[in-house]
Amino acid sequence: MSFETISVIGLGYIGLPTAAMFASRKKKVIGVDINQHAVDTINRGEIHIVEPDLDMLVSAAVQQEYLKAVTVPEPADAFLIAVPTPFKPCEAGDIPEPDLSYIESAAKAIAPILKKGDLVILESTSPVGATEQMAAWLADARKDLSFPQTSGELADINIAHCPERVLPGKVVTELVQNDRVIGGMSKRCSERSVELYKTFVMGDCVITNARTAEMAKLTENSSRDVQIAFANELSIICDELNIDVWELISLANRHPRVNILEPGPGVGGHCIAVDPWFIVSKTPEQAKIIHTARRVNDFKPDWVIEKIKVAVADFLSANPKKTIKDVTIACYGLAFKPDIDDLRESPAFDITRSIAKTHLGKVLAIEPNITSIDIDNVELVSLDESLTRTDIHVMLVDHKQFKKIKLNDAFVIDTKGIW
Ligand code: SAJ
Question: Which pLDDT tens digit goes with each residue over 45-74?
Fold first, then answer.
């Protein structure tokens, strides 16, 4: 049975491009989101997030009536769940626990409209066991249908975990080109999922089970987190030893089997700074390096804040007639990485907010990808304006606009090594 109608639950950074991609292959797609503003925006053929080329894709899909957005799920042949999996609130220093409530709500919202033969795919990055949990919620709500946890290959409903692995900023290309890990709860679940993704995926669709697929996704992001932690630790060591970490890394990377990543102000985004905790919270005794890497990367913004405070003190020593109220600090970049508008879990944003809370002088922010900010005591200004008004320049995100300028000012804190 082919998939005539596909529903994507959660129209965010992953769900919306995925929905648009199916629609671009002339599938009827029903996007579902609880955010009325997002739904209205999409139905006008516009987008509520910044992602290269997505606007054209969505606009064409809506115009040709292959994509519509709604707030309440409607029947479909396949449901892809792409909702957030944040943490539960916890005390500082505790190991954060994943919050599966969005998955639970999505499962409960689609349960009443499921019919025999439907496929349900969990795309959200999830702790090991989440797909089985989702299957249990669905089975609980629909006692008239059979599910793979009890009926295996013969189940009425097929269920799989197929984690998204696309890079923000390159989503449209990577959705098509990347290989997919397909973790079905049975062989049939996997085969049906491959059939669905082959609608637009050019990469390989590699079959495994749901738990391994969950762990594969967490492993990819934890691997990157550990490697960035190594770079961040090197940057702190080099600062202590008065060595240029960027030169050091470029030298070490000339070795054929060494490939050190880049240090920065910390690790942000909703993925790499989050997903390793899903492993640590499940296996705290075993996950030692993964845990330490998280702590190293989470400490880096505090280290940068201390550097800024030292720079302010140095500036005042060099300018004895000035008081702290005369010192203007500019923070270049607020997003969690270059050339995007996403401020979620952004170390640059946190550093700027923290400086603004304590600094008695002016704090400027330069973020070319957004038009307004809501941080007390922070003025969003243009690059040109900040260059003329600033005493202490703090480079936090290597946006393309910032790479074009050269700052030879004595009071520069460059966490990205571009000035
Ligand atoms: N960063 C560094 N140094 C580096 C590379 C990155 O400090 O050398 C920082 C970035 O500035 C940013 C954070 O790490 O704050 C994460 O950025 P990223 O570009 O490494 O990754 P994300 O979070 O945008 O996307 C990741 C990707 N995962 C991997 O590359 C293994 C993407 O493929 C996933 O789909 C995505 O997480 C996700 O949704 O899980």
Answer: 999 988 889 999 999 999 999 999 999 999
Q: Which residues are catalytic?
A: 217, 271
Determine the Cα–Cα distance for residues 94 and 14; give it in Å rounded to an integer.
Answer: 29
Closest Cα to atom 22 of ligand 1: 167
Is the CB of residue 175 below 6 angstroms from any atom belonging to ligand 1? no
Least confident window among 12-26, 54-68, 332-346? 332-346
Residue 314 has pLDDT above 90, yes or no: yes
| 111/246 same-domain check | no
If asked whether residues 73 and 175 sit together in one domain, one would say yes
264 Cα nearest atom in ligand 1:
7
Containing structural domain, residue 404: 220-414
Q: Read off the CATH number of the domain in which 274 is found.
A: 3.40.50.720
| Per-residue pLDDT tens over the stretch 371-385 | 999 899 999 999 999
Compute the distance from residue 169 Cα to the ligand 1 centre, in Å.
11
pLDDT at 2 (0 to 100): 85
Tell me, yes or no, whether 212 lies in a domain. Answer: no
Sheet harboring 378-380: ordered strands across?
378-380, 363-366, 329-332, 392-395, 412-414
Distance 339 CA to ligand 1 centre (A): 13
What pLDDT does 340 receive? 86
In this structure, are 173 and 247 located in the same domain?
Answer: no
- Nearest protein Cα to ligand 1, atom 14: 267
Q: Residue 92 falls within a domain, yes or no? A: yes
Verify whether ligand 1 is closer than 6 Å to residue 224 (CB atom).
yes
pLDDT of residue 60: 97
Q: Are residues 269 and 299 in the same domain?
A: yes
Percent with pLDDT over 70 in the chain: 100
Last residue of a domain, one of 203, 232, 248: 203
Angle at 374 between CA 274 and CA 9, to 5 degrees: 45
Using the predicted structure, report yes or no on whether residue 1 has a pLDDT greater than 70.
Answer: no
* Ligand 1 pocket check for 416: Cβ under 6 Å: no
Residue 210 resides in a domain = no
Residue at token pair 């990347």: 178
Q: How far is the CA of 332 from the centre of ligand 1 (A)?
A: 19
State how far the alpha carbon of 241 is from the alpha carbons of 74, 253, 296, in Å.
Answer: 61, 20, 18
Under the phi-then-psi rule, with left for phi > 0, alpha for psi from -120 to 50, and beta for the rest, what region is 90? beta
Residue 324 lies in a domain: yes
The residue whose two tokens read 């390793």 is 276
Asked whether the beta carbons of 6 and 29 are under 8 A apart, the reply is yes
